[in-house]
Write a structure and sequence with these properties.
The chain is mainly α. Helices cover 78% and strands 0% of the residues. Helix 1 packs antiparallel against helix 2. The longest helix is centred in the last third of the chain and has 25 residues. Pfam families: DUF7525. Keywords: Membrane, Transmembrane, Transmembrane helix. InterPro entries: DUF7525.
Length: 60
């Protein structure tokens, strides 16, 4: 039996999930007709993209 560690790809899954939410925010930013909706879309995309990068660093 070999002594090895089992590596998890949890950071990839969390980053993909948060990246998908960031993508939704970017679509809202591009498609929303009002200026306030575009601002909320940008805020959502920025926050979730930052969290996706942080999740990769946290679980690495």
């Amino acid at each position: 039996m070999s002594e090895g560690s089992i590596e998890s790809d949890k950071e990839v899954g969390v980053a993909l999930a948060l990246g998908a939410i960031a993508l939704v925010g970017a679509v809202v930013m591009a498609a929303y007709p009002g200026q306030l909706g575009k601002a909320w879309g940008f805020a959502g995309a920025f926050v979730f993209a930052t969290l996706a990068v942080g999740a990769v660093q946290l679980f690495d």
